């Protein structure tokens, strides 16, 4: 075991030492799949095989010039925590055999403090924002069923007319969650956005709620849209509940971290009024993939949906009995990297990180706005930049955008992803990695210009 750990440490150190020079994106070849060995290579042999076949083609997605999706890196403290998750290999179901559930409960408390949520919010770690949205919408479904006299978790949806869901600019995972929940993708009605924005027009949302004529429904508000990092007016949306019955779910996967900074906190005013909240951990929190948080005041509904009844399980439901509160039964201690990084850097560390990354995004947006090769499509509100390619006659079509991005990927100087904004083929840049410095953004900008001038 000591030799295996030593060689693994050496490989990790080698990778991390090269992370800033590693291409942000690589064009990996299609390898022929290997056959299962009869006798096996052993742990060290497997490591050598991996290094030879796969390691050269790993991208620099953990590095400072990967601006695709909304991906953070891994802070040193989070990396330490994540390694120990596998070493300790605790099953965080909520039994009294280990302190692991208490670690998760404490970590949720630290996150509540980071986001300024009241103590009555409970929470749990799930595998990602998709599952956090799934949990929030499952609670909304259960709540709406109760308003109509049906326990959806026990009886299903058969006795109900379709439950309506309203959102101005939902993330794609919301549609996926609705499909998994049996509510169906077509349950979601898109409500109008404010002119030139991805934020909900709350007045138009109210018109949809009026047409419900008192029937319960679900509203999904956004705190940070994917394309332009726009924010719904959460206070105004929540105020509508005084007149209309609906469950308010807020998808704050990465925009929720605006609460860390006094400068950006006004963007998420009213977050505490939500019935359920999604926040992702592999974004601004900068912990490894496979971690997000869901928050709610309604642990009772959560237990109705996810309670796992078996003779060999404790039937008691409390805040750290996660087997009764989340989709997963067996659960790794995925809260530990978050505990490590929150404890290591604290409120001030995350306020600095958010403000620094947002300032760098502002700088990149200003360069794009002043360049004839590009067209900035929306103001830079937080850490995301959305822009189109310009060719003198207008915006470049999607095939041209994809060709440009393939060139950037081959160049390796920066990695960006495509999108469509207001019907315009576009590119997204998201600055979320704790490692990013001014020098990194300048190098990325040079690569972007090289690609546009080819």
From TrEMBL:
Q: Name one GO molecular function term.
A: aromatic-L-amino-acid decarboxylase activity
* PROSITE patterns membership: DDC_GAD_HDC_YDC (PS00392)
Positions bearing N6-(pyridoxal phosphate)lysine: 283
Q: Which cofactor does it need?
A: pyridoxal 5'-phosphate
The record's listing under InterPro entries reads: Aromatic_deC, PyrdxlP-dep_de-COase, PyrdxlP-dep_Trfase, PyrdxlP-dep_Trfase_major, PyrdxlP-dep_Trfase_small, Pyridoxal-P_BS
What Pfam family is a match, any one? Pyridoxal_deC
Question: Keywords for this entry?
Answer: Decarboxylase, Lyase, Pyridoxal phosphate
For this chain's UniProt record, which GO biological process terms are given? amino acid metabolic process; carboxylic acid metabolic process
Q: Of which family is this protein a member?
A: Belongs to the group II decarboxylase family.
According to UniProt, the name of this protein is Pyridoxal-dependent decarboxylase
Biological source species: Levilinea saccharolytica
């Amino acid at each position: 075991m000591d030799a295996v750990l030593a060689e693994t440490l050496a490989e990790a150190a080698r990778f991390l030492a090269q992370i800033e020079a590693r291409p942000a994106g690589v064009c990996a070849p299609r390898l022929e799949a290997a056959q299962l060995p009869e006798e096996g290579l052993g742990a060290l042999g497997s490591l050598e095989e991996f290094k030879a076949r796969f390691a050269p083609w790993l991208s620099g997605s953990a590095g400072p010039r990967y601006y695709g999706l909304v991906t953070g890196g891994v802070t040193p403290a989070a990396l330490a925590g994540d390694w120990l998750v596998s070493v300790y290999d605790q099953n965080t179901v909520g039994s009294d055999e280990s302190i692991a559930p208490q670690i998760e409960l404490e970590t949720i408390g630290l996150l509540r403090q980071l986001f300024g949520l009241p103590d009555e919010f409970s929470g749990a770690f799930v595998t990602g924002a998709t599952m956090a949205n799934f949990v929030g919408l499952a609670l909304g479904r259960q709540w709406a069923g109760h308003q109509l006299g049906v326990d959806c978790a026990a009886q299903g949806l058969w006795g109900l007319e379709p439950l309506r869901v309203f959102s101005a600019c939902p993330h794609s995972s919301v549609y996926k969650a609705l499909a998994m929940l049996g509510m169906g993708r077509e349950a979601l009605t898109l409500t109008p956005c404010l002119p030139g924005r991805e934020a909900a027009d709350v007045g138009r949302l109210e018109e949809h709620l009026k047409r419900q004529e008192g029937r319960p429904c679900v509203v999904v508000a956004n705190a940070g849209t994917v394309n332009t990092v726009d924010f719904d007016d959460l206070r105004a949306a929540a105020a509508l509940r005084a007149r209309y019955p609906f469950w308010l779910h807020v998808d704050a996967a990465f925009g929720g971290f605006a609460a860390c900074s006094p400068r950006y906190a006004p963007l998420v005013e009213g977050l505490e009024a939500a019935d359920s909240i999604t926040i992702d951990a592999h974004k601004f929190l900068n912990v490894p993939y496979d971690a997000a948080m869901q928050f709610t005041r309604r642990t009772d509904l959560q237990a109705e949906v996810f309670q796992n009844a078996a003779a060999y399980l404790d039937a008691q439901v409390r805040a750290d009995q996660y087997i009764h509160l989340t989709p997963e039964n067996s659960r790794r201690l995925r809260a530990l990297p978050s505990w490590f990084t929150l404890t290591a850097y604290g409120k001030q560390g995350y306020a600095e990180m958010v403000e620094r990354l947002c300032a760098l995004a502002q700088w990149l947006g200003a360069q794009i706005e002043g360049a004839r090769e590009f067209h900035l499509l929306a103001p830079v509100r937080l850490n995301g930049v959305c822009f189109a390619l310009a060719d003198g006659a207008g915006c470049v079509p999607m095939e041209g955008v994809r060709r440009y991005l393939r060139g950037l990927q081959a160049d390796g100087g920066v990695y960006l992803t495509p999108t469509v904004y207001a019907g315009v083929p576009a590119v997204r840049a998201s600055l979320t990695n704790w490692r990013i410095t001014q020098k990194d953004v300048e190098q990325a900008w040079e690569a972007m210009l090289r690609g546009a001038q080819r």
